[in-house]
Specification:
The complex is a heterodimer of chains A (114) and B (216). Chain A is mostly helical and 114 residues long. Helix content of chain A is 49%, strand content 5%. Chain A contains four helices and two strands; from the N terminus they run E-E-H-H-H-H. Chain B is built from six helices and five strands. Helix content of chain B is 44%, strand content 12%. The chains are: A mainly alpha (114), B alpha+beta (216). The A-B interface holds A 2, 4-13, 28-29, 32 and B 2, 4, 6-7, 9-10, 20-21, 24, 51, 54-55, 58, 70-71, 73-75, 77-79, 81-82.
Chain lengths: 114, 216
């Protein structure tokens, strides 16, 4: 909800920022702006309840680990849900399904040690 | 009309072929590898120096802006993050040196390249300090005449057989895994790009310098 030109960060350029228009920024910057109430977060493509439930069901059926829709899905999921719950629809369900997937995979790890 | 003072710091300089962005990515990779490897890896001194320069430039640029410009906070945050990476990277290395100082001080010639000049100096000072401490604390009080040259010490070394998680960046066909327990369970496997494995460090350490694999 603010305006700014392109910022040339060491790790790459971000911007320009125009109110109402979505912009891609590094996660840490997004979290910071959200905390200062300068923006809303747009949820990642994979963060749909239906999609995550599919992933969870597949994980239950497979003996081995299945591929996750994104790297660091649990870390990113937790960070986004932590700071921008209001921006995500059905945030509680998303959190529950993510936790389910995590638990299933943990259990597989434990079983494989035996 | 705003004159963007930051643009200059991102232009490629003659000597470097990489953008600042790529150098940062390399530092991240070096940091992860160093954190996960049981032994000291090759020092990436150029990367560290390059980023320190970038940070210095950025700080100079920031000084020319008026206070309250939103860019200041953002750039400061990014600089903090980069400084943390550099800090953590260097500290991890120093920890490894301290844990096995005798082993590293006995390295000769080529292998000594694993330590930067400053790390080498640190190692020498550390060794002197610690040994001086042992001497004044207990050696003096030990009974009898100890002849140190007759003592054959077993020097602690980094455990090269620790397990590490490996992420494959480029295909590695025909990697030989030797059974160190001597049970003859040798295997040869192919590593495909994008795969992740849990392997013994000593089996893959030769693949690290070229970046064929990275530790996660």
């Amino acid at each position: 909800n603010f305006t700014h030109g392109i910022m040339h960060l060491i790790q790459g350029d971000v911007g320009p920022f125009k109110p109402g228009l979505p912009v891609s920024v590094p996660l840490w910057l997004a979290v910071n702006l959200r905390q200062r109430q300068r923006c809303r977060l747009v949820k990642p493509g994979w963060m749909e309840v239906a999609r995550l439930e599919e992933v969870r069901d597949m994980e239950k059926e497979e003996v081995l680990f299945t591929e996750m829709p994104a790297n660091n899905i649990f870390v990113v999921g937790n960070i986004v849900l932590d700071c921008a719950k209001e921006d995500i629809e059905k945030a509680d369900e998303v959190m529950m399904v993510l936790r389910d997937i995590w638990d299933i995979r943990q259990a597989k790890l434990r079983r494989s040690v035996d | 009309d705003t004159h963007d003072v930051f643009h200059e710091s991102n232009l490629n300089e003659e000597e470097e072929e990489l953008t600042a962005e790529e150098v940062l990515a390399k530092l991240q990779e070096a940091w992860l590898n160093e954190k996960n490897a049981p032994e000291l890896l090759n020092p990436q001194t150029e990367i560290v120096e390059c980023l320190l320069d970038e940070i210095e430039n950025m700080e100079e640029n920031l000084a020319t802006l008026e206070k309250g410009d939103i860019r200041i906070t953002v750039h400061k945050m990014e600089m903090s993050r980069i400084k943390f990476l550099i800090n953590s990277y260097l500290r991890t290395r120093l920890d490894k040196i301290q844990d096995n100082y005798e082993f590293y001080s006995k390295l000769e010639g080529d292998q000594r390249n694993r330590l930067s000049k400053e790390e080498s100096d640190f190692l020498d000072k550390y060794k002197d300090t610690v040994e001086g401490l042992f001497r004044s604390l207990c050696y003096r009080h030990m009974p009898g005449n100890f002849d140190w040259s007759k003592v054959v010490k077993k020097i602690p070394k980094p455990n090269l057989q620790s397990a590490v998680f490996v992420k494959v960046e480029n295909d590695v066909p025909g990697l030989e895994i030797r059974d160190t327990a001597g049970d003859g369970r040798d295997e040869t496997i192919d590593l495909g790009r994008g795969e992740q494995h849990l392997l013994q460090y000593s089996m893959i350490s030769h693949l690290l310098p070229d970046g064929a694999v990275s530790l996660t």
